Amino acid sequence: MLPIVEAPRTALHPPRINAPLAARWLETFLRDELLGRRGIARAVIGLSGGVDSAVTAYLCARALGAHNVFAFRLPYRTSSPASLADAALVVEALGIHERTLDITAAVDGYLQNEPDADARRRGNVMARTRMIVLFDQSAKLDALPIGTGNKTERLFGYFTWHADDAPPVNPLGDLFKTQVWELARYLGVPPALIEKAPSADLEARQTDEADLGITYARADAILAQLLLGYSDDQLVAHGFAAADVQLVRRRVEGTHWKRHLPTTAMLTNTAINEFYLRPVDY
Amino acid sequence: MSGNGIGGPVRVAIVQTKPRKGRYSENLNDLRDAFALVMDDGAADVIVLPEAALTGYFLEGAVYDLALPVQHFADDLARMWREAGATRPVEIACGFFENDGGTYYNSAAYVRVESDRAQVLHLHRKLFLPTYGVFDEERFLSRGHRMGVFASSLGATAMLICEDIWHAIVPTIAALKGARVLLVPSAAPGRGIEGGDELESIVRWREILENIAAEHGVYVVYAGLTGFEGGKGMSGTSRIVDPRGNTVVAAPPDEACIVRAALDPREIDLARANLPLLGDLRAVLPDLLLDEELPLPRGRRDASDR
After folding, report:
1. Sign (positive/negative) of CA torsion A80, A84, A89, A91?
2. Which phi and psi angles does A281 have, rounded to 5°?
3. How confident is the model at residue A204 (pLDDT cuts 50, 70, 90)?
């Protein structure tokens, strides 16, 4: 009887990452973008207590030196105290600068005029207020704000437009959430930040996975293949649940606009970024 | 080194550049500093630089601001060689954006610098312009249509730019036309982090270069651009591969640097004696090309005459 060697089914695991390799590449990226291109030695990071901003802080400390990293904790009155404590673990571990600025007065200064604002609107105001602070502190410190958004949330549009995505440099934007976790383990991010349920912390007891309706592990495995061009039928044939595939595709296809600059009416043959094309680093 | 394998080793230096985007004059000054390190006798007979070595690669419409006529570019290289303090001749291969009377190319010039003269020994215009995914070359540039083999101090030489060498038939044709050394200026954005200790794109490049060298018994001199351009990190790893397919020296992916090695023409002859695949191909190729099922133009030269 001849042995039969069957090709394995397509793996359903999330995309992997060689963490040391990715860390080295991202450190070089940060040095080139800040020191090489802009001549800026300092980084400003909003430290939320979550894993994304923690990993960003670790990468910046490795690339620029801890003394050049300025972390800001920016709580609103409803923010979880645990988030503040987790952010403090990162500050302590890295020896980076830290300042805590409560944004409650700034946020409520506007929202007191809008008592009917729902949770989504309130969350967006908080996120945009945090960016006002980070950009202003960057101007004060002669530093650059560093973005912390990952690829999964970018693809899901799970962020506040012109807030979380506003910093001019983002090291994690091409890494899925599950890859960020792996990178965090390699970098030595405190386990408490890696093991807790991810949350935007805009509302009490909020978690990303409850908001999204799918775990990051399942979402990332689907996203990785969806981006390669596979159809829903093919993804289901690979072994993914049809409901998960549809959820992921709906979120991606409903948020393309959030991954672009504002739409500008084209009226001439010198329209910026349509005809007049110059790279960002020119 | 001569085309028939007679001659001694030739020293090659690859200058792996990390240009500031669009700042051609400043990047030329950096090149002068690099030349100063290899201007002494015996330090380098041939200098090879990457694709878009002195401007950066992702230029979009700025390519029209920065493209130069080939002789202008050759004169700039020669001026830097002299300003570095060098008095002896040298040969320089370098990638640049070319303005040929209003037609623009992604080109590489092979220039012989001697006293006050900058003689362009060969000009290669990139054949395969990647226009997919992150690449958008053909939106701004025209394709080259010829791949020539020319005599240099390395012997019979061909230049292929970046994607040109990803099509296995192109280096094969170069070898069939007599090339013994392939110079490959390149600008390759690195990507792929799921594998081993190198980016997957770097592994793929290494395999391609080593396989081509081993299959045809040629030296391959690969000059890779380095530095991040708008988040896209050029993957450097300039390398020299011997005719048995072994990398003899390689640069890191992320630093401007110089890598050097001596190319010995006897190695080419010995490698081909041990693995005569190129000779075998010469014998069988006519039969393959006469296959009626091949979609090749027959009896027409209009495509190649452009």
Report:
1. positive
2. -105, 20
3. confident
Residue B47: exposed, middle, or buried by beta-carbon count in 10 A (0-12, 13-18, 19+)? buried
pLDDT tens for residues A88-136?
A: 999 999 999 999 999 999 999 999 999 999 999 999 999 999 999 999 9
A29·B62 Cβ contact <8 A: no
Q: What is the pLDDT of residue A7?
A: 86
Residues of chain A in contact with residue B194, where contact means CB-CB under 8 angstroms, are: 15-18
* ipTM of the complex as predicted: 0.91
C-alpha dist (Å) from residue B266 to B2, B14, B130, B279 = 10, 21, 36, 17
Report CA torsion sign: A211, A213, A219, A225: negative
Instruction: Kindly state which CATH superfamily the domain B10-289 is placed in.
Output: Carbon-nitrogen hydrolase (3.60.110.10)
Sheet with B239-241, edge to edge strand ranges: B149-152, B155-159, B181-186, B219-224, B239-241, B247-250
CB B17 within 8 A of CB A278: no
Whether B207 has its CB under 8 Å from any CB of chain A: the answer is no
* Chain A: closest CA distance from residue B248 (Å): 23
Q: What's the rounded Cα separation, in Å, for the pair B109 and B75?
A: 11
| Spatial contact of A97 and A70, defined as CB atoms under 8 Å apart | yes
Helices (H), B39-157: 63-66, 70-83, 137-140
Of residues B30, B42, B160, B146, the one with CA closest to residue B93 = B160
Length of chain A: 282
Domain ranges of chain B: 10-289
- In the DSSP assignment, the letter for residue A79 is S
Three-state secondary-structure class, residue B145: coil
Q: Is A168 on the interface with B (CB under 8 A)?
A: no
Beta carbons of A209 and A216 less than 8 angstroms apart: yes
The whole-angstrom separation of Cα A247 and Cα A222 is 10
**Residue A20 contacts B where some CB pair is shorter than 8 Å:** yes
Tokens representing A110 are 């506007």
A172: closest chain B residue by CA = B231
CA A106-A109-A110 angle, to 5 degrees, is 100
Number of alpha helices (DSSP H) and beta strands (DSSP E) in chain A: 12, 4
Judged against a pLDDT cut of 70, whether residue B78 lies above it is answered with yes
Amino acid at B194: E
CB contact (8 A) between residue A18 and residue B22: no
**Rounded Cα gap, residues B131 and A246, in angstroms:** 31
Half-sphere exposure of B226 (CA within 13 A, CB side): 25
DSSP string, B175-190: HHTT-SEEEEEE--B-
Domains of chain A (ranges, CATH numbers): 10-282 (3.40.50.620)
Task: Please name which of A262, A168, A281 lies closest in space to residue A272, comparing C-alpha atoms.
Answer: A262
Torsion of CA B155, B161, B167, B169, to 10 degrees: -30
Interchain CB contact of B233 with A (< 8 Å) = yes
